[in-house]
Design goal:
Elements (H helix, E strand, L loop, with lengths): L1 E4 L6 H10 L4 E4 L10 H4 L7 E3 L5 E3 L1 H11 L12 H25 L1 H4 L3 H21 L10 H10 L21 H11 L2 H9 L4
Parallel strand pairs: 1-2
Antiparallel strand pairs: 1-3, 3-4
The structure holds glutathione.
């Protein structure tokens, strides 16, 4: 199995999930500017990570689909509830929320110079979404339930793009989470997981 990734990008999420499951995968760095690796266009014609290539050459893209595929390879690890259960739909609710509201909500802040005044519209929306996450994390220890799931891996990768001394601030969007104590406690809990530490180290983020 091969995981195409960019350091600190959303591909950190499937990277963490692979580590959690103890699945050995070849990590292939993608550099969009240098157009490397040269064959990446044939892996994902859209040019973005993550992309997961299976042994037979089949490629799966889209982070939320990849992490669910991986979790279902080893259901005994409990990274995703069983298909068809309500808990699985709850997980998918969170994955979709993270994808559309958080992941893409970060984009104007990550490209603030190009986004110009739109940043001032985008930031309060993202802050409001994070306040919602903080309130949810007051009720339970992990975002989709009582245990760590693939949704936590995804949220962890995205939250690291914000700014606070307790974050692995790598992309540096101008948003601060210091007044969100439940998010902070959750972040520190997730960051302490050996699988997460290994992924951060492998991506040069430590
Ligand atoms: N819809 C995709 C979006 C993936 C995405 O936005 N990837 C970013 C990194 S976080 C990327 O590779 N950007 C480079 C590009 O778009 O050229 C998913 O959820 O997997």
């Amino acid at each position: 199995m091969k995981l195409y990734y960019m350091p600190a990008a959303c591909s950190l999420s499937p990277h963490i999930v692979l580590n959690e499951l103890g699945i050995e995968a070849e990590l292939i760095p993608v550099d969009g500017k240098k157009r490397l690796p040269a064959h990446f266009d044939s892996v994902n014609p859209l040019g973005y990570v993550p992309a997961l290539e299976l042994e037979d050459g089949t490629v799966l893209t889209e982070g939320p689909a990849i992490v669910q595929y991986l979790a279902d390879l080893k259901p005994e690890f409990g990274l995703a509830p069983a298909n068809g259960t309500f808990a699985r739909y709850r997980l998918q609710q969170w994955l979709n929320f993270l994808s559309s509201e958080i992941h893409k909500g970060f984009i104007p802040l990550l490209y603030a110079r190009l986004a110009g005044p739109y940043v001032e519209t985008a930031r309060p929306k993202l802050e409001q979404r994070y306040a919602h996450i903080d309130a949810e994390l007051a009720i339970r220890p992990y975002i989709a339930g009582d245990t760590f799931t693939v949704a936590d891996a995804y949220l962890f990768a995205l939250t690291g793009w914000g700014q606070a001394p307790w974050l692995t601030s790598y992309y540096r969007a101008d948003i601060h989470f210091d007044d969100l104590p439940n998010l902070r406690a959750w972040y520190e809990r997730v960051a302490a997981r050996p699988a997460v530490q290994r992924a951060l180290k492998a991506e040069g983020l430590h």
